[in-house]
Amino acid sequence: MTDMTPLRLGIAGLGTVGAGVVKIIRQKANLLASRTGRPVVITAVSARSRDKDRGVNLADYAWEDDPVALATRDDVDVFVELMGGDEGPAKDATEAAIAAGKDVVTANKALLAHHGHALAQSAEAAGRVIRFEAAVAGGIPVVKSLTEGLAGNDIDRVMGVMNGTCNYILTRMESAGLPYDEVFKEANQLGYLEADPNLDVGGIDAGHKLALLAAIAYGTRVDFDAVELEGIGSITIDDIKHAADMGYKIKLLGVAQLTGRGLEQRMTPCLVPATSPLGQLEGGTNMVVIEGDQVGQIVLRGAGAGEGPTASAVMSDVIDIARGTRISTFGKPAVELEDSRAARTSAPAPYYLRMMLDDKPGALAKIATVLGEAGISIDRMRQYDHAGGTAPVLIVTHKTTREALDSAISGFEATKILADGPVAIRIEAVS
Ligand SMILES: NC(=O)c1ccc[n+]([C@@H]2O[C@H](COP(=O)([O-])OP(=O)(O)OC[C@H]3O[C@@H](n4cnc5c(N)ncnc54)[C@H](OP(=O)(O)O)[C@@H]3O)[C@@H](O)[C@H]2O)c1
What we know:
Elements: E1 7-12, H1 16-27, H2 29-36, E2 40-46, E3 62-63, H3 67-71, E4 78-81, H4 89-99, E5 103-106, H5 109-125, E6 130-131, H6 142-149, E7 155-161, H7 164-176, H8 180-189, H9 198-201, H10 204-218, E8 228-229, H11 237-245, E9 248-259, E10 262-273, E11 285-292, E12 296-303, H12 307-323, E13 351-358, H13 363-373, E14 378-383, E15 390-397, H14 402-415, E16 418-427
Parallel strand pairs: 1-2, 1-4, 2-3, 4-5, 5-6, 8-10, 10-16
Antiparallel strand pairs: 7-9, 7-11, 9-10, 11-12, 13-15, 13-16, 14-15
Helix pairs in contact: 1-12, 4-5, 5-10, 7-8, 13-14
């Protein structure tokens, strides 16, 4: 028999995402009821300011100033956390909701990257679920893809461009031929950057998302501290042009893979082939590439942020709960999630090296010698026109380790033949 009991939501946070969720529930009540078999209703809401016009009618809902009070109301079945922040009200109210026997839907990657394991354990011990589709790559259903659609696979690798602002900056630098600082300012004026821009351009926001995907893909406890993080602030327009000359694009790329060395999690600038789907990704769009042992490669592409796409992902979780679909937070019971066994070294890869060589006889030969002594062989090398006694040199190495590369970089310093650099960027093998 169909359960016609309404599913009652308490929504904390009525900003971009929260207002979007309220709109969907108001506009699509019949569709939601027919798809889930029961009404989905909002009983109470919370935000900081009660008076703000949010472009949506809130008169039908009870108001709570305190998100903890909202999360523990008797007439709330699901606490929908759309405030943000890894501590403070988001954490307090989520914990209170679980303790009060509520299911939780959240879009908060920071909260889960830092406290996901503890929250999952307490929710599952209480027989509740925490769902977070909107926390990773906005509207792209990547959590669902990993936990459900691809659950029959061992996952070989998960990769993603998951911060639209960084991809906007990198692709705009290339298309307009502008330096990083100018495009950064432009992005700020357009409102693309978080209040703390380092969350975006420092790779932290995307690193949170990668840590969540890695936990699902490999059945490990979320280990954000083990994510190797490097932002895009040191990428120059020259690097972008030189990479393009050699058939590559530079992306802030997240990669998670489990090898004999342990779990690798990297959110760093990488070169990818310009012809690959990741290489062709322009502007603020997100892309997640999943490689499974049975399915091969899956490419998911779409809006990683914004009211509609993010609210769409929140609704997917709400709809699952309304239908009675109950999946462990990270795809398997939290008590069975293993330690991440973080890899201390990353898998060998080819690298792009850019350096400014003092234009003296024998300088190029010295570069080759230093690389050879570090056990690194050269795949391709290019020297550009001299300017003021220095010449830019680009090298693409064959596969090598980061340790060998660091040893070569120390070797370059000792030879004193470089006027600047070297800059080293990993080349990720993707098709
Ligand atoms: N925006 C996106 O495209 C996007 C995409 C994916 C995930 N997310 C995640 O979704 C969450 C919400 O993001 P957003 O962009 O919607 O943020 P936002 O526009 O800044 O909205 C945040 C909301 O939380 C409320 N709030 C903040 N502190 C509060 C407190 N102490 N008590 C009660 N309410 C409080 C704010 O109230 P006032 O309105 O009264 O100030 C506001 O309504 C974050 O975790 C974010 O990372 C966002």
